Amino acid sequence: RLADPRREIPLQIYMAESKLTLEQLGQNVLRQLEEDGRCIVVVSEGFDVGEFGATRDSFGHIQYSASQTTVAQAVVNYLNTLEFPVPGKARGQVPGTDQRNAIAYASTVDLDEAYNVGRHAVAIARESGNGFMATILRERGRPSYQVRYDQVPLEKVAAKDRSFPEAWIAPSRIDVTDEFLAYARPLIGNDWVSVPLVDGLARFAKITMKLAPKKLPEYVPQTYRKG
User: Fold this and answer.
1) Same domain, yes or no, for 27 and 45?
2) What angle do CA 30, 173, 142 make, to 5 degrees?
């Protein structure tokens, strides 16, 4: 929606917080196809598509990428059971890990804040010890986008979910409000990431392994823990 603030594209956005059903999604798509001949549907992972063979991690959270099928595929499968008013079939695309590892498409704001919050986390560990998580807080009422870094007790955020605010969901339930666009716009930055190349490929850092003396017991990742 950031790329189409005037809402000229036949775009529909479905979030878990929209509380719509798969059947309602289908009817909305059919209506859009009648009006425009095409429809672009963006669906969040948490949107209710019924049973899709979900697997869960040790915290009980759904692991969407490890489930029997994706929410996107469930939506595509359902849409293709409907009788479209135009030729063609529904098709789906899941960004997957591409959005996480394609550095060329990263937000410059996100990169800067990730570095700074990491530095702040080290400062917290040195000054306050463990049991805290570093936080990024947006400064309200400023003419330009600014943030500050703070800390919060771990028990207040660990294994917790944060839902998309109801006030940012449009009355149609299939779009976001202009207030959300104003919130999100500064987060994507204003420029491309500078990616150094070597022989046409992205340059990767070569790090010399220098390990600090071991002081803690052997760490077992949460996924590998039993019981």
Assistant:
1) yes
2) 135
Q: What is the pLDDT of residues 120-164, one digit of tens each?
A: 999 999 999 889 999 999 998 888 999 999 999 999 998 888 899
Look at the chain and report how many structural domains it folds into: 2
Bridge partners of 198? 201
**Among 49-53, 60-64, 119-123, 215-219, the range of highest mean pLDDT:** 119-123
105 residue type, one letter: Y
Its pTM stands at 0.81
Q: What's the domain range around 106?
A: 102-162
